[in-house]
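Hey,

The postdoc asked me to send both predictions to you directly instead of through the lab channel. I've kept everything plain text so nothing gets mangled by the mail client. Protein one:
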Amino acid sequence: MPLIVSPPIAVIADRAGAVSSDELNKSIDMTITKYRYDNSGDELNGYVDVTPVPRGTLILNDVNEGLPPTVERGKIVALRIMEQVRKTEDLVNRAYDQSLVMSYGTYYAKRDWRTVPVEPDGSAKFTVPALREIYLQGRDKDGREVFRMMSALQVMPNEQLSCIGCHENRDTVPAVASRLTDAARKETYQPKSPYWFLKREGNKELPDTRIFDYPTIVQPVLDTYCVKCHNGGNAECGYDLTGDKTRFFSMSYDNLLGRSRSYRQHDMTTGKMLPNEAAKGKPLVHFFWLLFTPSSVSEPFITGSYASRTRNQNGEQRKTTG
């Protein structure tokens, strides 16, 4: 089965919600309640990542600098370090405008280098793998993605790279500091891995356990909590969430992203969802199609969990893992 890595996810079940039936919404809510597969708290209290790769250091002065007022100070408590993995094959015999076929949306595999904390004053200081294309996701206390970098950064081995903020105007200069930031007063943070990840580290069948891989990360959750009812030709609400193979992907992946009509097009200049697309309501599982991904600075709350239709039984949006 091909590698499936889009949308950028921790757990796709955590982004699911009502489709056409309250039953599906209820069953997914029960799954989220029982199985918090990954959150920033688990990751920050995990074991130190000792993967032998060259590293540099990233110093962030204030994550809130450059973000709009809709992001309250203290909202972002962690940053996830992501790598966009370079391709090694030519694009031939395309499907979904890509080859090798990766997913519905992105052309690239994503590698997770773990989550690091943001201090109360918005600062952070942590190591990142060198000589790689890295981007960051700002996450709230429940692990949901608040915003993401739509560009990338790179560091050389042992290099220190500093940032003023996130998405600040490029003409911004750092203020004269009258005091050290909270992060500057501490040792450089070494990213940690959650303890559940040890199971993946021990799986010799996975060539790279850091790659987001739908069959081995997401499908086991669905197998445990969903497929008892959502399987076969008479699946509840008509949604088959099994891992049975389809032409390119699987029944659950095709149902959650394709059959649910989850795709929403955003304005490629402003990044905002087009009015006729927004009128359809929140998608079941929000994702970008890379061919028409906005080229602007990413607005907060327009991707991932916050943009997906995941609600608890009180009608409030679920606290999911982004």
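Protein two:
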Amino acid sequence: MSQVCDILFPAPSARGILYGQSENEHNFSSGTFADARRISTIVSCETDDERENMKLTQFFREHPKAALAYSGGVDSSYLFYEAVKSGADICAYYCKTELQPEFELRDAVRLSNDIGGRLKILHLSVLEFSDICENSPLRCYYCKQYIFGLIMKQALADGYDLLLDGNNASDSITDRPGMKASGEMGVLSPLRESGLTKKDIRALSRDAGLFTWNKPAYSCLATRIPTGKTISGELLEKIERGEQALFALGFSDFRLRAKDGYALLQLPESQLETAANLWDTIENKLAADFPSVRLDRNPRASD
């Protein structure tokens, strides 16, 4: 079973929220979208920034109605903003599974509210699928198929036959099985087609006043579990509680990885000294779920 909650945020000058909820059976045989492989026209401009923005503007002129697979992160948030600003008929779909922490959903709703966009929240239990729980190297591929399959089904029911995602020009398909899945399903990536990199998108988001402009990249909770180790709801909850405790201590852009018999904390270089000074507090905060915690002395690289 899956659930959908429709949230409409009118323009900020007359803000309000309309809620409606229904249940929909999950069916993964919906196929790809009829027009999903249309390619946008590329136009030239005087500067790189102008050219890239014009490509995105042109994209929405050519695709004035679309659904957006929306994560609440930097990239899909900026794409959502540009679609709304362009006047496109855009509906964003956030799929909540056991693999996303609650703050991601809060951020998605907040950004939608800020820009006056339409958001639908879908719910899917991916732990019902053995190819997710087994946590093979293709887990992300299968997960994307399930999530985008559900979004496509709901979007088609809502009258949208084109699905977009927030992949950008910095993303490499060679190390992202999920991108391979979305490509096979006919999903378009306007940011990538427009040549916008992560750095570009952060700068443009800052200029647009989006709070997500400096939001750290946050991969799903399953990435904290070593490939081949079974994913369970209990383990995911432990990881989320641990990371929330670390957020509360002021840390950011980190990973808490569940290893055999201990948790490994990975931090940016600028936070390593703080962690060393607060180590007793960190161990106490995590003790209920992770009796043994280790600090990775190799700094974690940011995007």
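Summary for protein two, as requested: The two ends are 36 Å apart (CA to CA).

Thanks,
C.
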